[in-house]
Design a protein that fits this description.
The chain has 12 helices and 3 strands. The chain has about 325 residues and is an all-alpha fold. The protein has a 3-stranded mixed β-sheet with strand order 2-1-3.
């Protein structure tokens, strides 16, 4: 990786500590982490398989859901296997290229998932506010363009992180008090001022995540206005039920992210191991819960999952 080779290093690897202060518990912590990751892996893979193979799920809402599942797999698979290796096998070393690759996919997965949630909000807006034109507005071609835009946007946002990091001289400690590589954690090991890195991270938060939340909020304001114009309560409930799963995922995605951000910024008295544990749980719990939430709340997915694990698959 040319970016890595051009950086001034006094060492060739980083040392990941896992969860500092809880080293004696690493073996036991890894057990629920492994089980949670297994559920997340199976749940998202089943979801992608069903949407890819079942014709009745070839609708915009489910195509966006498959994008969400891919983002979840990127977020969890880029971090959890190495995390488990640290906890169980004390495999704490990670070379620069692997660290930078992990950092890329962690950030890419987070930014992409935020964008997918925005696309899903637009999908719900069209479905409720302009249902007669739903299939003509959200064609497969347009969904493909939205997916490509999400990928390009996420890539362009993350690439400058590596440009900034390659300008830093790493001549001090190579010990990262974390379970995986993250931008500011790595930048803090540099023997130089990292103000630009901090401000860029802040700008990414504002320009991407905050704007995504604003646009999602606008979408739901318009959805609520349309719902309250419906003539009956049954129509209200039906409209709200189509948005229930998406609202749950939005809460699950953004609430822990902002809580973690606030504890890092203002929670100076919060022990370090709590910060790290929260970050670790974020890349585990969300990918596990997303397919469960949609599986429980979406009748078509429940039906297809039931068919998949029954002997009546061919009749479903």
């Amino acid at each position: 990786m040319s970016a890595v080779n051009s950086t001034k290093f006094s060492h060739l690897t980083f040392i990941l500590l896992g969860i500092p202060g809880l080293e004696d518990w690493h073996t036991w912590i890894a057990i629920p982490f492994c089980l949670t990751y297994t559920v997340a892996l199976l749940g998202n893979c089943v979801l992608i398989f069903l949407i890819a193979t079942e014709h009745s799920l070839q609708e915009p809402m489910y195509l966006f859901l498959s994008m969400l599942a891919v983002s979840d797999l990127i977020l969890s698979t880029s971090t959890v296997p190495k995390m488990l290796a640290i906890f169980w096998f004390r495999a704490r070393e990670i070379d620069f290229e692997s660290c930078f690759t992990q950092m890329f996919f962690v950030n890419f997965g987070f930014v992409a998932e935020s964008a997918v949630l925005l696309a899903m909000a637009f999908d719900r807006y069209v479905a409720i506010c302009d249902p007669l034109r739903y299939t003509t507005i959200l064609t497969n071609e347009k969904i493909g363009k939205i997916a490509m835009t999400i990928v390009i946007r996420s890539f362009c946002i993350i690439v400058p992180v590596f440009f900034l990091l390659q300008q830093l001289p790493f001549c001090g400690s190579n010990v990262l008090p974390h379970s995986y590589c993250e931008h500011i954690g790595v930048a803090r090991l540099a023997c130089a001022d990292i103000t630009v890195n901090i401000w860029y991270s802040f700008a990414v938060l504002i320009v991407t995540v905050i704007l995504d939340i604003v646009f999602i909020g606008v979408s739901y304001v318009l959805i609520l206005k349309a719902v309250f114009r419906l003539p009956t309560k049954d129509a209200w409930l039906k409209a709200f039920s189509t948005c229930g799963s998406h609202v749950c995922i939005i809460i699950l995605f953004y609430t822990p992210a902002f809580f973690s951000l606030l504890t890092h910024r203002f929670g100076h008295h919060v022990p370090r191991h709590i910060h790290i544990l929260l970050a670790d749980l974020y890349v585990l719990i969300l990918p596990m819960l997303n397919p469960i939430v949609y599986g429980m709340k979406t009748k078509q997915i429940r039906k297809q999952v039931g068919c998949m694990f029954s002997q009546k698959w061919k009749w479903c």
